[in-house]
């Protein structure tokens, strides 16, 4: 079990950063370590971005000093999405099977979460955790149960399928929202037109990208944009004041996770491509 802390950054500071400083502040490069759970505790709405990679043994989600709690979920909720082969998670003694891209919501007050190795291949669980104010039931969400939207077109290079997995129209949460966007063949742009949302922050986890390809992630204020090149299975922390969009050298998938003031998915301030600088 490892953890690190990422501090919140003012936009006027961020726009002076060079590439190395931007990557240090916003890019998470090594989420999956063999037989370990990685936690990145951000001071943006105190969202945790994490990865569990059980290979030889099950891994228990343990608390760490920053949480100041006996158990990890004493004051938190948790969203898990399986980004590896079919695997299992045990929640307070109940064993739950998760197929690739299926999600699991775990409510505040849960005492024990255990990630299990896969029967075939290496298990990979991506997760987000946010502070919670009440306990909601644990619930598994399959792709068929997700709220699914098809957007964009091949002509605009952004034909994509959005699967809203852990949103309030599918499962009751306190503030956490998570979903999956899959770029279709021939399309590379995600979240275009770009937008910001001061009411909540967001984290992006890019995956299903060939190892020799990359995604150029665009961030920053709409009039002061920056970019970071991101590899497969890496994540970006996106502040509320920042756009979050990307274009890949190959089609890919990404998981978005949000925490903040409200649960209205459409609460965003759109920025047209011609307005970006």
TrEMBL record:
<feature type="binding site">
    <location>
        <position position="195"/>
    </location>
    <ligand>
        <name>Zn(2+)</name>
    </ligand>
</feature>
<dbReference type="Pfam" id="PF04962">
    <property type="entry name" value="KduI"/>
</dbReference>
<keyword id="KW-0413">Isomerase</keyword>
<dbReference type="GO" id="GO:0008697">
    <property type="term" value="F:4-deoxy-L-threo-5-hexosulose-uronate ketol-isomerase activity"/>
</dbReference>
<dbReference type="InterPro" id="IPR021120">
    <property type="entry name" value="KduI/IolB_isomerase"/>
</dbReference>
<dbReference type="GO" id="GO:0019698">
    <property type="term" value="P:D-galacturonate catabolic process"/>
</dbReference>
<comment type="similarity">
    <text>Belongs to the KduI family.</text>
</comment>
<feature type="binding site">
    <location>
        <position position="197"/>
    </location>
    <ligand>
        <name>Zn(2+)</name>
    </ligand>
</feature>
<comment type="function">
    <text>Catalyzes the isomerization of 5-dehydro-4-deoxy-D-glucuronate to 3-deoxy-D-glycero-2,5-hexodiulosonate.</text>
</comment>
<keyword id="KW-0862">Zinc</keyword>
<feature type="binding site">
    <location>
        <position position="202"/>
    </location>
    <ligand>
        <name>Zn(2+)</name>
    </ligand>
</feature>
<protein>
    <recommendedName>
        <fullName>4-deoxy-L-threo-5-hexosulose-uronate ketol-isomerase</fullName>
        <ecNumber>5.3.1.17</ecNumber>
    </recommendedName>
</protein>
<feature type="binding site">
    <location>
        <position position="244"/>
    </location>
    <ligand>
        <name>Zn(2+)</name>
    </ligand>
</feature>
<dbReference type="InterPro" id="IPR014710">
    <property type="entry name" value="RmlC-like_jellyroll"/>
</dbReference>
<dbReference type="GO" id="GO:0045490">
    <property type="term" value="P:pectin catabolic process"/>
</dbReference>
<dbReference type="InterPro" id="IPR027449">
    <property type="entry name" value="KduI_N"/>
</dbReference>
<comment type="pathway">
    <text>Glycan metabolism; pectin degradation; 2-dehydro-3-deoxy-D-gluconate from pectin: step 4/5.</text>
</comment>
<dbReference type="InterPro" id="IPR011051">
    <property type="entry name" value="RmlC_Cupin_sf"/>
</dbReference>
<dbReference type="GO" id="GO:0008270">
    <property type="term" value="F:zinc ion binding"/>
</dbReference>
<dbReference type="GO" id="GO:0042840">
    <property type="term" value="P:D-glucuronate catabolic process"/>
</dbReference>
<dbReference type="InterPro" id="IPR007045">
    <property type="entry name" value="KduI"/>
</dbReference>
<keyword id="KW-0479">Metal-binding</keyword>
């Amino acid at each position: 079990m490892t953890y690190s802390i990422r501090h919140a950054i003012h936009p006027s500071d961020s726009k002076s950063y060079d590439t190395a400083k931007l990557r240090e502040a916003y890019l998470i490069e090594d989420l999956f370590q063999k037989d370990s759970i990685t936690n990145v505790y951000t001071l943006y709405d105190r969202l945790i971005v994490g990865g569990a990679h059980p290979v030889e043994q099950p891994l228990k989600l343990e608390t760490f000093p920053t949480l100041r709690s006996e158990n990890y979920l004493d004051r938190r909720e948790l969203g898990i999405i399986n980004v590896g082969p079919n695997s299992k998670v045990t929640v307070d003694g109940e064993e739950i099977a998760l197929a690739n891209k299926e999600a699991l919501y775990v409510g505040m007050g849960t005492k024990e979460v255990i990630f299990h190795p896969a029967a075939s291949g290496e298990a990979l669980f991506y997760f987000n955790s946010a502070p919670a104010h009440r306990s909601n039931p644990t619930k598994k969400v399959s792709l068929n149960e997700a709220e699914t939207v098809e957007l964009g077109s091949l002509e605009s290079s952004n034909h994509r399928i959005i699967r809203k997995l852990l949103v309030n129209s599918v499962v009751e949460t306190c503030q956490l929202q998570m979903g999956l966007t899959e770029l279709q063949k021939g399309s590379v742009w995600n979240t275009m037109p770009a937008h910001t949302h001061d009411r909540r922050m967001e984290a992006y986890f890019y995956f299903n990208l060939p190892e020799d390809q990359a995604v150029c992630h665009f961030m920053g204020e709409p009039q002061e944009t920056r970019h970071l090149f991101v590899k497969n299975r890496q994540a970006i922390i996106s502040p509320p004041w920042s756009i979050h969009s990307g274009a890949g050298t190959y089609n890919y998938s990404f998981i978005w996770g949000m925490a903040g003031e409200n649960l209205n998915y459409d609460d965003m301030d759109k920025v047209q491509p011609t307005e970006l600088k």
